[in-house]
Amino acid sequence: MSERELLAQDIKGALKRGLFGLSPIAESLVAAALGLIIGAIIMALSGFDPIVAYAALLKGGFASTYALATSAARATPLLLTGLTFAICVRAGMFNIGAEGQMYMGALAAVTLSYFVLPPGLYQIVGILFAMTAGALWSLIPALLRVFRGVSEVISTIMFNWISHFLAFYLIAKILVDPARSSQTVRVPVAARFPILIPRTDLSYALFAALAFAILIYVLLWHTPTGYEIRAAGLNPRAAKYGGIKSKRTMIMSFLLGGMSAGLAGAAMAMGTPPSYAVFAGLSQIANLGFNGMAVAMVGRNHPIGMIASALLFGGLAAGAREMQISAGVPVEMVGVVQGVIVIALAVPELLRIFRIFRKRWPRLFGRRAEV
Amino acid sequence: MVQVDQTPRAVGTSELFLAAHGISKTYSDGTEALKRVDLEIHHGEIIGLLGENGAGKTTLTKILSGLLPPTEGRVESPRGSVRFASPREATDFGIGMVHQHFALVGPFTAAENVALSHERPFTRIRLAKSLERLKALMEESGLHVPLDVPIEKLAVGEQQRVEILKVLSRDVDLLILDEPTSVLTPLEVDNLFELLHKLRGQGKSIILITHKLKEVQSITDRIVVLRHGELVGNVRTSEATTEHLARLMVGEALEQAADAVELRDDALPVRRDEVLDDIEKEIVLHVEKLVSRGNTGEIAVDGVSFDVHAGEIFGIAGVEGNGQSELVECLTGLRVPTQGKATIVGTDILGRDPREIYRLGVAHIPEDRWEVGLVLPFTLAENAILGIHRWEQFRGPLRTIRWGAVQQHVRALMKRFEIRATGPSAPAKSLSGGNQQKLIVGRELAKDPAVIVASQPTRGLDVASAKYIRDLLVDMRNRGRAVLLVSADLDEVLARSDRVAIMYEGRFMTVCRPAELDRETVGMLMGGVTSGAKEVCDE
């Protein structure tokens, strides 16, 4: 069967496994509509015109080349950090650590400026650096889980804080730009992702993210390794019976997830004009890892679905400014409305995931102990 | 037809507590769990409920305690109608049940667990009062447990006592115990029986669900035997002989093996280089003094030795939970045994992982097809390659999986093994039980194995699917494979095996040809009784 037929089959299968008897796409549309309506009610109650506000959101997010380019630029790192979460969920684990793994990737990419390389190699080396850093940072919680039984949820959250303060230290003391103490050294010009559309933030990093998403899709659904990861994620006992080593699939999924988050860091450090550096306080990259989890939920932890959901999130982020400027909605209210829409979209997948994980962690979810 | 003994009056002239009239139960999937069962329970008697797996014991107790509505018939009590919405209502009425798997909160102490069972939502928990009551109850019943230790730190026997205390503290009149001795040490069993006697003295009724003949004879006043949902015996214990009970439990008739159909010739490849006469003597699977622990650390397999030859079906019969599962898991790489030896054509297999064992030519049809045999959310195609997903015939460029080849393989399986599904991309959970099992069997036989380990291969299947799978196993035997058939379905094992072992509490009670066993002996051996059973044919 050809690639395309399989994709069609995947989409058909995805359509079939809907909650509430709805197909996932219809379900998402209903959820989005609900989110928009609730958001509109909140705005109306607070004295803003929802129609004007949504028009501004649409205009700022999707209505022009500039708007679309901005949305796509915002979507790039979110798609990658979302993949971190999605790969691990497919393997049956919660990796909350994309945030920290992304920091490590961004800082690793920045260190490029200390090396002298042939011009053509800079980007590749930068990407490799960042992916390696992310993967190594992700490897420790994976090993703790596999060999010591430490919950990966707890350890990845802790690792986020470790990397948070480690990043503060590195930015302030080690990687600091001698000219400007508020940021790291800048990524060398030869290492930067070229800008795709002039006068926007959109760089070739978008293609790196898309390529990685497609790579993950192929890996998960078209290779024996991906098959093993998904089997172990859905039913560890059956996987063991099928000769699959779940320790291996767990570590593999964390490594892949870390690479993805590291690449997100590289996309930010090497692809965000005009600074091409990481700011003290991590202002331009903070929370991209956490938001990626929402992208994964809305995209149903499927790389292809997540391309769409990352674009939606990018659009919401890009449209927020327009909402503020032309509809006069304060930034806090914009956040509330965005939050409502995102939650509405993520709920069905959240429910599905919890159902799978409840079996795994009876204690966490309060099932009676079988003594 | 088995003759049903007249219902005897209970010991003494105690009053009636509960009466079931003409109870039938048909589950929504068409399973007839009970057929017109009549039963009376009086105050102050201990009733043993005897029967094989699937005889309807659990269904009957659930109906008696009002947790399940009967399809036909009614349960009555001088106290009023018996129909409850929850176990709590049942205990309020005076019926308490102690399940095989305890419903206790691990990190809570005994006192907290008991208090928990008394509380209603949104009320204050009065732990001190409950503790006081519990101590009084412990004195009264003679049941002693540590009160301030988390439940999970207690031995299983102690946990059971907490469970019983929990039920007694609700002041029940009827106590139903589901296989209470299966988790206990012999000393704990003695203590439990002493307690049951004491409770009977206080006028309480007790139903003891069990398959152990010795136990049921040593403690009960009356024994009720179920077989295939029918009440086939209701006898006073003092008048029942072990032989009689054994015969009642396992029945008289045997399904004949002769009607095994010839399978289509293309169903499976015949091993190319074999001459049946030669390999019939060959020992394929050799097991020696295998010892293994179960999930709770108890010795589950206790020194089992046997050989399975090529072209032979070696059956293991017995009531479930006597170590069969653990034995199979040891042989298929899912459990590491404590001691012993097992080889496949001379190669040691113990402690190897499932993939290596499969490479040595072992196919495994696991007893739990939902939790182990299949990844339910996966499609038919994805499930059909579980364990063989790295086969060369499915490998495309760059080490990808060639789904086209997989689909072809699945379509062939569907045709050969009569798997009915909408197509290779249907999710496995959308298939009926019979088709799911055929999918597993097809996948395993496609490995062209030398040894087939089939564990409860037909449990819960419709008659046609069950027969089909049994015939397949016979066919595999005829093609020179060694088959290890583990089943709680006595008819299946006895009719299809060339040799059969009966397993009880981790050991083989006997190994012999099915023709050399009569039903009575089988029933006694399954119930753990050897004395009085005719000398059997150990080789």
Properties at a glance:
heterodimer, A: 371 residues, mainly alpha, ABC transporter involved in vitamin B12 uptake, BtuC, globular, disordered C terminus, B: 539 residues, alpha/beta, Rossmann fold, 3 domains, 6-stranded mixed β-sheet, 32% helix, disordered N terminus
Describe the structure in your own words.
The complex is a heterodimer of chains A (371) and B (539). By secondary structure, chain A is mainly α. Chain A has a single domain, classed as ABC transporter involved in vitamin B12 uptake, BtuC (Orthogonal Bundle). In chain A, 71% of the residues lie in helices and 0% in strands. The longest helix of chain A has 30 residues, at 331-360. Chain A is globular. Chain A starts with a helix and ends in an 11-residue tail after the last helix. Chain B folds into three domains: 1-94 and 172-252, P-loop containing nucleotide triphosphate hydrolases (Rossmann fold, 3-Layer(aba) Sandwich), CATH 3.40.50.300; 106-168, no CATH class; 257-526, P-loop containing nucleotide triphosphate hydrolases (Rossmann fold, 3-Layer(aba) Sandwich). Chain B has 18 helices and 20 strands. In chain B, the strands form four sheets. A six-stranded mixed sheet of chain B has the order 6-7-8-3-9-10, with helices on both faces. A six-stranded mixed sheet of chain B has the order 16-17-18-13-19-20, with helices on both faces. In chain B, helix 3 (110-118) crosses helix 4 (127-141) and helix 8 packs across helix 18 (519-526). The model of chain B is unreliable at 1-12 and 254-279 (pLDDT under 50). The interface between A and B is large, with 30 and 44 residues.
What class would the helix/strand composition of chain A place it in?
Answer: mainly alpha
Q: Mind telling me which CATH architecture of the largest domain in chain B this is? A: 3-Layer(aba) Sandwich
What CATH architecture of chain A would you give? Orthogonal Bundle
Strand tally of chain A is: 0
Total number of beta strands of chain B: 20
Major β-sheet annotation of chain B? 6 strands, mixed
Shape of chain B: globular
- Specify the number of helices of chain B: 18
> At the third CATH level, what is the topology name of chain A?
ABC transporter involved in vitamin B12 uptake, BtuC
Whole-number mean pLDDT of chain A: 88
In total, the number of domains of chain B comes to 3
Shape of chain A: globular
| N/C terminus separation of chain B | 35 Å
Beta-strand residue fraction of chain A: under 5%
Going by CATH, what is the homologous superfamily of the largest domain in chain B?
P-loop containing nucleotide triphosphate hydrolases
Major sheet strand order of chain B: 6-7-8-3-9-10
- Strand residue percentage of chain B: 15-25%
